[in-house]
Structures are given as structure tokens and as C-alpha cells.
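Data card: per-record layout.
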Amino acid sequence: MSSSSNGFIALDFETTGLAANEEHIVEIGAVRFDYGNQEIDVFSQLVDPGVSIPSEATRIHGITNDMVKGQPSPREAWDQFLTWAGEHAGLVAHNAEYEANFVRFLYGSDTQPDIKFIDTLKLAKRRLKDEPNYKLTTLVPSLGADSHRALPDAKACVELFMRIAATYKNGKIPLKSNLTKIGEFPEYRSPNAPSEKQLRYIKNLGGSPSRVSTKQEASAYIDRLKVANQSTNDDLHRVPRKPNSSEITWTIGKVANQSTNDDLRRVPRKPKSSGIAWIMGIVVIVGVLLMVLT
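The structure for this 294-residue chain is written out next.
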């Protein structure tokens, strides 16, 4: 899908949760736009995820189980979206990795579609400085209470796209360096998963990155590895200390006392029977000689 004449498509999903490999889409919202017109057409579709929507998710986007009852499945709704979208220059999303991973899991082992994304989150971090944070609601204050519904978020994404485009001299975002194929996005990582920096640090310290699954576990593991490595380094670089004269005297005295104590505790050895017989023989001979001499 690549036709700049048909503009861009801003896309947003609402879902049952964050993990694309475990959760499901409950709403798709999209806006077709170009540099001359911020809203050419819109697409909005509720989706039946096939599972109960967790209450935590409903508190965020307000979509209930009753609202999605009888609506198309995620793959059916996605196919409807593709038919509506037709040819375009690229999909635009804020934190495009999120949408890209949900699309990827819609296809499973099937061939992935030829889709490219422009990520307004990455662009905003590069082009819009001194922002307190890069949440969509911060960058587009007009979004307000409508945030976390697919179509309003998609419209806000268009507004942000235009704001970023205005930072370029020609007023347009360079496509070649900012379009990312769907298969090039990293797989979804939980917000609490160890960072790449932590995993590299663990490996450099001689540890096993596979032993940790959260940021907290990684931090604790890194601390243990640092202590272990420091202890090893201390042992390797420790210079043997020369004992002073009093320590030498004490050691000699201790050895001497130990030797004396060993002698005192030593039990006399009982002579062997052959030795006794030899002694008695000498006694007899001496007695005979004495008798002869007298």
C-alpha cells in the first residue's frame, strides 16, 4: 500500500489489554488525510473480541461487553478497514509499535501484509523539544476527555502529524526515513519487562539475561552480580601481608606449646612380645654369670 496521491491513514486501536499476543482489539478508528485536508474520510468500527472485556480496560476506554455484542470479529473488522483504506502513502499511529503488533497477531502464521507505519511518538521526541512528556493527550490538549476512543485518538494523531510536519522547512515529513515496515517493529514488551540496557548490562557482568522477567528482578540481579564481581576482583588483587615480629613469636610459641601438649598426652607404647623375651634372656644370662663368679 503506497500511493501518496491518496494521502495517509491515521490509525488507532482500543483493546482488551496491552499484550498483543494475549489481548484483542475492541475498536478500530481511522482518518484519511493529506497535507491539504486534515479529514478526507473516517472509519470507525466496534469489534467483538470473542472474550470478556476486563473491567480495567473498560475503565480506560469505556467500551463494554454489551457494546461489542454482535459486532464483527477482530479479523473481520480489520478486513473491512483494509477495504475502506485502499491505497495510501502509509499508516500513521502514535506509538505505532502497539498497532503494528496487534496487526501482526491478526495474521498469525499467515503472510504479513505489505503495510508501513509512520510513528508520531518517535517523530515527536525528535522534533518537539521541551515537552513534559510525549503522551498524545499532552501533545494534543484538545483531545481531552475523548481520549482512549479509537476515532478521537486517530483525529488527534492527524493534528500531531501536522504539527510535526510544520517543523520541517518544506512543511512535510520525509517519508523515506520515517516509514517502517510492519515486520521491522520489535515484538511487544511489557512496560515492566527488563530494558535492553539492563539485559546488556547483565550479559556484560557475566550473568544470564534469561533469569529475569521484570525491571525489578533485573535491578536486583545486577546488584548481586556487581557484588560477586567486586569480591572476585578483590581476591585477585589482594597482596599477602607480611607478618610482624610479635605475630611470628606468637606463632612459634603456639607451635611449641602444641608440641609439648602432644608429648604430655602421648600414651607410652607397650613393648612387643619379642622385645620382652630378649630382655628376659639377658636377665637370665646375667644371673648365671653372677652365680659363676661368686
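Known properties of this structure: The first strand starts at residue 8 and ends at 15. The longest helix spans residues 215-237.

See the next section for split statistics.
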